[in-house]
Amino acid sequence: MFRIAISLGGNAIVPTAGNLLPAWLQDADWRKRHAALICLAQIAEGCKKVMLTQVGALVDMCVKGLADPMPKFLHPMYLPSCLSAY
């Protein structure tokens, strides 16, 4: 996802991700919620400049990930990378 984000650029991938990721974060399947945050972290690394304009919504998505009830969902190395891009 990181390479796709760099190749396409933030202006192409961020609007699409902005439509898909919030829906995935609200899905009942923990794997979709986990995939959404992994995508967010990968896109953030490749499209930092464009994503800085939407930092409030991105932080909200990461915070929702911290509150997820599924124990397998919280990978100890994942969420800090989601937030460290900012």
From TrEMBL:
It is found in: Cytoplasm. It comes from the Eukaryota. Keywords: Cytoplasm, Protein transport, Repeat, Transport. Pfam families: HEAT. Its main location: cytoplasm. Gene3D superfamilies: Leucine-rich Repeat Variant. One of its GO terms (cellular component) is cytoplasm. One of its GO terms (biological process) is protein import into nucleus. PANTHER family: IMPORTIN BETA. This is Importin N-terminal domain-containing protein. It comes from Haematococcus lacustris (Green alga).
